[in-house]
Amino acid sequence: MKKNYIDYDAIAFAEDTTFIKWIRHQNPEAKHFWEDWVQSHPDKATAIKEAKVLVQALNIKEEEPSKERIDMLWSKIDAATTEQSKTSNLKTVARNPQPAARKPQLVRWLSFAAAACIAGVLFFYLQDPSTMVQIGKGEHLAYTLPDASTIQLNADSKISFKEKSWSKERIVKLEGEAFFEVKKGQKFKVITPLGEVEVLGTSFNVNTRNGNLVVDCQTGKVRVSAKGDQEILTPGQGTRLNKEQTELVDTYTSNINQQISWRRNKFHFDNTNFRTVVEELERQYDKSIKVLDEKLLDKVGAYTFEGNLETALKEVCYQLNAKYTIKEHSVVIEKK
Fold first, then answer.
1. Checking CA distances to 317, which of 193, 235, 246, 260 falls within 20 to 30 Å?
2. How far is CA 331 from CA 282, 291, 292, 310, in A?
């Protein structure tokens, strides 16, 4: 990590392996180095912000993009720049205007940077400097907030918060599912598309999948507000929106260990249709699953799965009296 980063711009930072590891919380050494470096070079703050949003927003898993992905991204960039030339005199940022001479590494980040700018991600990030953490299907992530509170993100989830004002206002926006362990202090609020969760210092799980809101309390007290209704949860209690999604149900006894077992890659469903289980399998293993019989999807029961994909499929198909076939990019489930 002894490079000279003084002349780096946003794309160069976002291309750096140690920088990526820092943003994705994959390496304590990278975290220590970059936090010290950023503090020592305040003049690079804007470039660092731009690089952060490129790494965070795009959430790229592959080391090198496929030729098809490169071609698709360049098509979008070319289309966008053509449209811009008709409506604006602004110059388009480009490292190399000759497609034939593009280097693979340069192509990757120029493509990603342009794609992010086209989407408007960078503009909104700089206007509203929130920190966003997003993970895709098949991933879990433990994240530490500025006050040492922790969040464990389930697959295909994202959070955002304002780091600069965190000491004054602890607010996290959540889409997906996450388990929170909040350090005692001033009010801590989780905002979801359907309601809010408010605590002082406690641990709890929030699930906002598929237009639902389910909250389970492990320790402390949790106040849940949604649809003009409010419930106070104590350890071992939970609440959720009713089927009509018009109000919160009364608090109920929650099997919190079962509710948060996803943190150990174990999944439990009680009185649940198989369609919901399929959605979770797709989310956890990043595979497309096709069920050939619609009646199987509507079958309500108790389902559990854990382990790798094949082990999980064996478990749920045994419970369903069905069979499965694993293909390269998908899974097919059908009656025996």
1. 260
2. 9, 8, 11, 10
Tell me the two tokens of residue 52.
Answer: 């952060």
- Tell me the C-alpha distance between 90 and 317, whole Å: 57
- Paired with 241 in beta bridges are 248
Could you state, in chain order, the average pLDDT of each consecutive group of 10 residues for the chain (336 residues)? 75 83 76 84 82 64 46 52 45 35 45 48 54 89 92 94 90 96 94 93 92 93 93 94 89 91 92 92 93 90 92 92 89 91
Pairwise CA distance, residues 174 & 53, whole Å: 18
Identify the pLDDT of residue 72: 54
Q: What's the CATH fold of domain 265-335?
A: Phage tail protein beta-alpha-beta fold (3.55.50)
Instruction: Give residue 248's identity as a one-letter amino acid code.
Output: L
Which residue has 């090198």 as its token pair? 64
* CATH number given to 131-256: 2.60.120.1440
User: Which residues make up the CATH 2.60.120.1440 domain(s) of the chain?
Assistant: 131-256
**pTM, rounded to two decimals:** 0.62
> 206: which strand partners?
178, 215
- Inter-residue long-range contacts of 80-86, CB under 8 Å, 24+ positions, other chains counted: 80/114, 80/118
Provide CB contacts within 8 A for 151, sequence distance 6+: 142, 143, 144, 145, 159, 172, 178, 179, 180, 181
For the chain, what is the largest distance between any 2 Cα atoms, rounded to a whole number of angstroms? 65
- Structure tokens, 326: 């694993």
Residues with Cβ within 8 Å of 257's Cβ and at least 6 positions away in sequence, in order, are: none
The answer to whether residues 235 and 220 touch, using CB atoms and an 8 Å cutoff, is yes
Query: How far is the CA of 15 from the CAs of 48, 181, 190, 303, in angstroms?
Result: 12, 33, 32, 43
What distance in Å separates the CA atoms of residue 234 and residue 240, rounded to the nearest whole number? 14
The rounded distance, in Å, linking the Cα atoms of 233 and 198 is 10
CATH 3.55.50.30 domain range(s) in the chain: 265-335
**How far apart are alpha carbons 177 and 201 in whole angstroms?**
19
Strand, coil or helix: 154: coil
